[in-house]
Amino acid sequence: MHVLRVFLVPLVFLGGLVFFASTLSGLLSPDTPCKLGACPETLYEGDSERVFQYTRSSVFKVRLDDRKNPPTALRCSPVGVIEAVSFNGETPYYTGTFRAMAPGACLLEGNVFSAMIVIK
Questions:
Q1: For residue 2, what pLDDT band results from cuts at 50, 70 and 90?
Q2: What CATH code would you report for 33-119?
Q3: Residue 70: is the preceding peptide bond cis (ω within 30°)?
Q4: What percent of the chain has pLDDT over 70?
Q5: Structural domain boundaries of the chain?
Q6: How far is Cα 105 from Cα 116, in angstroms, rounded to an integer?
Q7: Global pTM?
Q8: Exposed end of the chain (fewer CB within 10 Å): N or C?
């Protein structure tokens, strides 16, 4: 009985850890957009390759390193889905503020950052 407990407890713990990791991996999949109304207000470089949904008129921010993604290189195509409101911050990081303008989707890209922005 003691030998069974010595192996069973770590096995159950390891199984739970594997289950948790696989669940977390599914939540962070780049193909799975965050739910409308639950997307972060600020996106970071680590959010690259993900999909974000916002409602029309909502405001969100992007915090990036201007050495990798200068504000002048940041574009969302096609134009008209979101608009840049301002760029603030001190080198090397800045925060770009964007407003959702029209329903649709655009690819927000810098030199090494990209995120799909969907406006509903």
A1: low
A2: 2.60.40.2020
A3: no
A4: 74
A5: 1-31, 33-119
A6: 7
A7: 0.73
A8: N
Rounded to whole angstroms, how far apart are CA atoms 103 and 7? 55
Say if residue 19's pLDDT is above 70. no
pLDDT score recorded for residue 11 = 41
Residue where the block lists tokens 């192996």: 7
Q: Which residue has the tokens 């599914």?
A: 26
Amino acid at 72: T
CB-CB contact of 96 with 60 (8 Å): no
What pLDDT score does 33 carry? Answer: 84
Q: How far is CA 105 from the centre of its chain?
A: 15
Instruction: Name residues whose C-beta falls within 8 Å of residue 35's C-beta, 6 or more positions apart in sequence.
Output: 53
